Amino acid sequence: MSPPFSSGIYVSRGVALLLAGLTAVLLLALVVLAALYGSCAHVQSSELDSHLVKDTSLSPPGGQEWTQPTPAHESTVGTSQDWRPPSGPWDHLRLPPWLVPLHYDLELWPRLQPDNLSTPSLTFTGRVNITVRCTVATSTLLLHSFFLNYKQVEVWGPLAPDTRNATVGRVPLENVWFALDMQYVVLDLGQSLDPGSSYELNFDFSGQVLQEGSEGLFLNLYTDEDQLRALIATQMEPTFARHVFPCFDEPALKATFNITIIHHPGYVALSNMPQLGQSHRIDVNGSRWTVTSFHTTPRMPTYLVALVICDFDYVSRTERGKEIRVWARKDDIADGYLDFAANHTGPVFSFLEDLFNISYPLPKTDIIALPTFVNGAMENWGLMIFDASLLLELDDDLPEKRAMILSILSHEVGHQWFGNLVTMSWWNNIWLNEGFASYFEVGLTNYFYPKVPRNMIFFLTVLHDILEDDHSLESRAVSTPVENFTETREINRLFDIYTYKKGIWSLFTSLVTVYYFINIPGANLN
């Protein structure tokens, strides 16, 4: 028998060991590259999914949050970089009339601590339960929201008609996404809401406290009693409530509010209504916080929601059984710089109550003078906010300064009726709010402080200025058609000389005309 035949390549034992080692190294490299590729793909997928969530569980899995992208990252909304929502109601500046807000239970928790003022960014968390009434069957819900992140979103209902907040079930939620151009958060539901029924929308959210400017929830750093201090305040008008909590941020959509503020025990919390009660809460780090709740507000628009967290002092007066507190830095209160404002606020309220024969409906009034407030003054119902121009310092106690303080106070107090009690349907008629407030600003200042001829000042400044500007090519009518508005920032531009000075002139001429036809015999409208 002959030996068996075979063919191939023969190598030595050493070469075989070397080839086996190289093969093992190559396989290891492939495993590492595959792992790195998988990690990158997971990160990209997570970033995309954070903007469009389809999970309908009560709490999102893994603590996933729904993050509203900045305009620079708008393309990340959806399931791909090129995804855009189809055209729909989110392309319009006005909310669709499908839902009517009835009540907000709002809780806000800014993480401001007096011993940690150097933090580069200050955050807040919050939750809001909004009771709404459905007017048209819809499975798509739109609310205003800007730069807010969401941890949990739920829709419950329909609510039982006899018991508030009693529900029969949870409405399935299929999608949450953001329409940045018009500043909406959009909820796609798994079923339509029933017309005539009420529902509750629940949101857990977070955001950033603004460190420069006065929009939404903002920070003031200042010095008092030779120490660096901080406070938090709000400016919601015209469209900044959506920076603080998801809401129906239009002036006609009034609702009642139960507001709760969680704050450091070293601070006091103020809001539109008197304090209802206080309790305490311990955070995950073991720190103790104070929980301050407030009485229910009257029906009001979102732009009047207000809160302040500070360690100011105040001076108090009582007018017709209602307390008026004027808050400021402790140094300013001790020096008596707010006494003039405190002494004249009550009489201004009483004068307007008698003039309108309508009592001021809130049980209290807080006025606060911030060290820095870009807007100058804001008429929030029950919590008016001013800048330092409200202070009457001893070296500036001149008739003109007193008249200016009276003018500012009269304007904002006038808004408690014109604007707060009676509100325009939308911002194109803001000139009615500001025109009436400016009208009474001039009249009340002249009534309470006749040393300065404010009527003459009106003709020399207001009338002359507006007639001069109104002759220019850039002039506009006091009221702009709603359909002309295409961007939210166009609303901010309405707060100009034409709204205030042309508004007051339009009201002045109208009132004179009405007086003429009512009081002069033989006058008629023909």
TrEMBL record:
Family: Belongs to the peptidase M1 family.
Region (Disordered): 58-83
Organism: Rattus norvegicus (Rat)
Gene: Lvrn
Highest taxon of source: Eukaryota
Pfam (any one): Peptidase_M1
Essential cofactor(s): Zn(2+)
InterPro entries: Aminopeptidase_N-like_N, Aminopeptidase_N-like_N_sf, M1_APN-typ, Peptidase_M1, Peptidase_M1_aminopeptidases, Peptidase_M1_dom, Peptidase_M4/M1_CTD_sf
The organism's taxonomic lineage, starting at the top: Eukaryota, Metazoa, Chordata, Craniata, Vertebrata
Topology with respect to the bilayer: Single-pass type II membrane protein
Residue ranges of every copy of the Aminopeptidase N-like N-terminal domain listed in the record: 100-304
Compartment(s): Membrane
Record domain Peptidase M1 membrane alanine aminopeptidase: where: 340-504
Keyword Methyltransferase: no
Keywords: Hydrolase, Metal-binding, Metalloprotease, Protease, Signal-anchor, Transmembrane, Zinc
CDD domains: M1_APN-Q_like
Name this protein carries in UniProt: Laeverin
